Amino acid sequence: MLELDVREFRRMLERKRKDLLSTSWSKEDIAIESAADEIDRLQHQLSREVAIQSLDHTSKLLKSVQAALGRIEDDIYGVCLRCEEPISEKRLKAIPWASHCIDCQEVIDHHEAFSEKDHGRFGFAA
Ligand SMILES: [Zn+2]
Questions:
Q1: How close is the Cα of 50 to the center of ligand 1, in Å?
Q2: Hey, is 79 helix, strand or coil?
Q3: CATH number of the structural domain 6-99
């Protein structure tokens, strides 16, 4: 297992969830808080931008955050859901709700991008 400080990520995720919930209900709640550190500030800024751009996106993000909190409860936080390798701490600090390592995320993103235009490209045909 990773030597991650899970409590730190739980704190970040719970704050993120609170942010997302408040921005989901009312844009009036979007306010700049004086943040304790740079990561918090950036995350808060990100959550504001996301909320302004798209509430649909916000609800998807909220699901990701809640799923990540669930993984903390299940003691599998920080492990890639695809290859089951540890997700780098750097990546988790940038995206605490990340469910895949960078390598797998790239494969998934590419697969989704290609499968729309060129279905079967990543199939198992000989
Ligand atoms: Zn992976």
A1: 26
A2: strand
A3: 1.20.120.910
